[in-house]
Amino acid sequence: MTTTAKKPRPKTYLPTDFDETDLQNFIRLTEHFANKQTRLISSDDEQVLLPEQFFDVLRRVADALASGRGVAVIPQETKLTTQQAADMLGISRPTLVKLLETDQIPFEKVGRHRRVTLRNLTTYRDRARTERRAVLRQMARDGQEAGLDTSGPQDLPVRK
Fold first, then answer.
1. Quick one: 145 and 108 in the same domain?
2. pTM of this prediction?
3. What is the mean pLDDT of residues 138-160?
4. Which domain holds residue 47?
5. pLDDT above 70 (res 66)
6. What does each C-alpha distance from 73 to 8, 40, 52 come to in angstroms?
7. Is 85 within 8 Å of 74 (Cβ atoms)?
8. CB-side exposure of 91: number of CA atoms within 13 Å?
9. Buried b / exposed e along 5-14 (16+ C-beta atoms within 10 A)
């Protein structure tokens, strides 16, 4: 028997969709769960092991909702308009269009409209973030070698 999976659709969850007390309780009760195997248990006592990365997603969603921020779950293949993509990167639409036209971010044209997949947008964002951090570290090293700065590149935060 074959099962067909539904195509995932974008869904936005707002803080008003949840009871604030439930969110706070979830966060408080799961704080000590880091690096432990977590299981979901159904009302029929069926259990499933929850991968650590998935548990991290749940915690981040709960934290965002408890902080009054909405959360959108969007498949990576979702095609965004140039305005949506620019908003995600925190840049103007004309700046995004320049990135598209200089082949820094892959896109496709639908009629005369440009569309960017979420996957390509996040790939660009991550690459640009990594390059910026490398430049900042090098600038800090150069400044320290020139005697302009007393902090070293090791003082810069290291992120993935």
1. yes
2. 0.64
3. 72
4. 11-73
5. yes
6. 9, 20, 18
7. no
8. 15
9. eeeeeeeeee
